[in-house]
Write a structure and sequence with these properties.
With 185 residues, the protein is of the alpha+beta class. It has 2 domains: 94 residues, Alpha-Beta Plaits (2-Layer Sandwich); 81 residues. 36% of the residues lie in helices and 25% in strands. The protein has 6 helices and 8 strands, in the order βαββαβαβαββαβα. The strands form 2 sheets. It has a 4-stranded antiparallel β-sheet with strand order 2-3-1-4, sandwiched between helices. Strands 6-7-5-8 form a 4-stranded antiparallel β-sheet. Strand 6 and strand 7 form a beta hairpin. Helix 1 packs across helix 2, helix 3 crosses helix 6 and helix 4 runs antiparallel to helix 5. The N and C termini lie close together (5 Å).
């Protein structure tokens, strides 16, 4: 049984696209997912699944649309893919406050990213790195004050969803717990 992370985008924000995590867990269970856990209300689901994982994003989006009336954008990453992105974070050891460190998980490689624009709009104290699968940003004055954070996706040219380092770390912890539930899986 393989472990996966579903990262939903734009749910439970400003009273729109409301999706209680209990409902999300129920929908995932109905799709055949096991060991389903969620973390905070922003749409992070961790689960195990046996079957064609390539169909999961569409199946989950359709189940949410049927269950609560809207179709969210989401991505599903294998445990290995999620952990690889987290492990590649070049700033994790240097940042003492996880809320100032964010990762944008990219839906596809950002081969045509406007890297010149990223550099142009980054403030002097912000550091970032773009890889094939993610965009890492350390914004020590906060993500809400970062012009770069507001324009990342437009500059990447691909859909992406961001999570702060605290959330990424917690998801990794939950994944590790699944490994203990299903040794050798």
């Amino acid at each position: 049984m393989a472990a996966f992370v579903a990262l939903l985008r734009g749910i439970n924000v400003g009273g729109k696209n409301l999706l209680p995590m209990k409902k999300l867990r129920e929908l995932l269970t109905e799709l055949g997912c096991k060991d389903v856990a969620t973390y905070i209300q922003s749409g992070n689901a961790i689960f195990t699944y046996v079957g064609n994982s390539a169909e999961l994003p569409e199946s989950i989006a359709a189940a949410i649309e049927s269950g609560v009336g809207f179709r969210p954008s989401l991505m599903v990453l294998s445990e290995n893919a999620f952990n690889d992105v987290a492990a590649a974070n070049p700033f994790s050891a240097e940042v003492s406050e996880p809320k100032f460190l964010h990762i944008w998980f990219a839906q596809a490689p950002a081969g045509n990213a406007n890297t010149a624009r990223l550099s142009e709009i980054a403030s002097a104290d912000e550091r970032f790195l773009l890889t094939d699968s993610a965009f890492y940003l350390h914004a020590p004055k906060g993500i809400g004050r970062s012009r770069l954070a507001r324009e990342v996706e437009k500059c990447l040219g691909v859909q992406a969803t961001a999570r702060n380092w605290r959330t990424v770390s917690k998801i990794r912890e939950i994944l590790s717990g699944l490994d203990q539930l299903n040794p050798g899986a």
